[in-house]
């Protein structure tokens, strides 16, 4: 198959090693990109485990055979990259693929990178996290992780990350070495893009995930100040910061003045907090409409949390504990004075006393989302693909 001429765009092949049955942040971004491309009339093919899950009308879905699941990571085991290359080659030829966008760092992504290079098709690698953070107690498993990744992907050389404990370094090295083989590395945030460039990833472009269509509703002017926390229940997301802050706020104001909804997790007795357990996307949207702002309490971990884009599309700002995210989101975010529960409580108390402090961030949220809806996203992606062909 000869290299594709630069004026023949063809279909876009989206590749992900993660199961689409579970919509975490990376999977949500992946599915929304597929939907955005289809909405804008771009032929799109999705290749991912459990790709038979609904994506969008007009999206061709292909699910590679699974051979099991990698424990702990809950990662579908698809075999080695070299064994997956024939499937990708056949997909490229059958669907007239002109560009490949990978959203992961394992065997399927590595196979797509190899096929793209061999056939002269540009491959873009979206990095959803370069800030892997594993418990330090698991550091002795770093050599095993490196060996397994090399065996699955066939990638054994490239840059090496240092600066954290061995397992974090191994995971970040894994991402870096895949990124170094792409024509363009896409980072949904500016701060992660800078980190990838410093690590030696090559050409890195800050390129946001897709924001949902704007669906802003006016916030309620009656009742308590309402906040929403939505994320994986993992240590790096720091839900306890939100809960401790609510304890401090209720101790100061009493119950009924501030309310926090938590999507996910199990119920526990925390004053002013309602735990909703695992909820579908439409229920998250309802909770967002009822909220005045969303909380993001992570610190030094997040790239571009999808909950932020969802909040912005609903016209809701985010309250962030991380100064890096505060800089990333600009006027759409309110930064706590300190990254701990005390800082969050202090900001919440000030918002409860004067809700007009939310007016400018609310406008900033809508502006941020407006620049990242499907049409804008797809137009920029087309520009990047064209530049990779040049």
Short descriptors:
six-stranded parallel sheet, 390 residues, alpha/beta, 2 domains, Rossmann fold, 15 strands, 13 helices, disordered N terminus
How are the SSEs ordered, and which strands pair?
Blueprint: E1 11-15, H1 25-39, E2 44-47, E3 59-62, E4 68-70, E5 75-77, H2 81-94, E6 97-102, H3 107-119, E7 123-126, H4 142-153, H5 166-179, E8 184-187, H6 190-199, E9 204-206, E10 225-230, H7 239-253, E11 258-263, E12 273-275, H8 281-290, E13 293-296, H9 306-313, E14 318-320, H10 323-329, E15 333-335, H11 341-353, H12 359-370, H13 374-389
Parallel strand pairs: 1-2, 1-6, 2-3, 6-7, 7-8, 8-9, 10-11, 10-13, 11-12, 13-14, 14-15
Antiparallel strand pairs: 4-5
Helix pairs in contact: 1-13, 2-3, 4-5, 7-11, 9-12
CATH superfamily of the largest domain: Glycogen Phosphorylase B
Unreliable parts = 1-8
CATH class type of the largest domain:
Alpha Beta
**How far from one another are the termini?**
19 Å
Average pLDDT: 92
**What percent of residues adopt helix (DSSP H or I)?**
40-55%
The H-and-E topology, N to C, reads as EHEEEEHEHEHHEHEEHEEHEHEHEHHH
Instruction: Write the CATH fold name of the largest domain.
Output: Rossmann fold
Outline: globular
Beta-strand percent range: 15-25%
Count of the domains: 2
């Amino acid at each position: 198959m000869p290299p594709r001429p630069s004026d023949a765009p063809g279909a876009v092949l989206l590749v992900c090693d993660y199961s689409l049955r579970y919509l975490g942040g990376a999977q949500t971004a992946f599915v929304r990109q597929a939907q955005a491309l289809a909405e804008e009339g771009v032929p799109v093919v999705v290749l991912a485990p459990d790709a038979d899950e609904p994506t969008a009308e007009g999206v061709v879905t292909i699910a590679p055979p699974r051979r099991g699941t990698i424990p702990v990571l809950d990662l579908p085991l698809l075999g080695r990259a070299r064994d997956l290359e024939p499937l990708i080659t056949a997909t490229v030829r059958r669907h007239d693929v002109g560009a490949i966008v990978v959203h992961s760092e394992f065997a399927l992504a590595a196979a797509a990178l190899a096929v793209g290079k061999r056939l002269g098709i540009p491959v873009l690698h979206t990095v959803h996290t370069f800030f892997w953070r594993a418990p330090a107690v698991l550091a002795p498993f770093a050599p095993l992780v490196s060996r397994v990744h090399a065996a699955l992907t066939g990638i054994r050389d490239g840059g090496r990350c240092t600066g954290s404990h061995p397992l974090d370094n191994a995971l970040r090295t894994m991402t870096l070495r895949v990124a170094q083989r792409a024509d363009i590395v896409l980072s949904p945030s500016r701060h992660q893009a800078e980190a990838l460039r410093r690590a030696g990833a090559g050409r890195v472009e800050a390129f946001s995930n897709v924001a949902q269509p704007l669906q802003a509703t006016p916030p309620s002017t009656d009742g308590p100040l309402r906040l929403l926390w939505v994320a994986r229940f993992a240590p790096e997301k720091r839900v306890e910061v939100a809960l401790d802050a609510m304890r401090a706020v209720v101790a100061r104001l009493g119950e009924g003045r501030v309310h926090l909804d938590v999507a996910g997790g199990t119920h526990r007795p925390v004053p002013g907090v309602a735990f909703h357990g695992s909820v579908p996307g439409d229920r998250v949207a309802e909770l967002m409409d009822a909220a005045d702002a969303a909380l993001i309490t992570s610190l030094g971990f997040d790239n571009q949390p999808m909950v932020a884009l969802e909040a912005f599309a609903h016209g809701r700002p985010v309250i962030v504990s991380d100064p890096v995210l505060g800089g990333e989101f600009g006027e759409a975010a309110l930064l706590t004075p300190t990254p701990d529960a005390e800082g969050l409580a202090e900001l919440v108390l000030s918002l409860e006393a004067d809700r007009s402090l939310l007016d400018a961030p609310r406008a900033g949220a809508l502006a941020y989302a407006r620049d990242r809806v499907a049409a804008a996203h797809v137009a920029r992606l087309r520009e990047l693909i064209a530049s990779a062909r040049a």
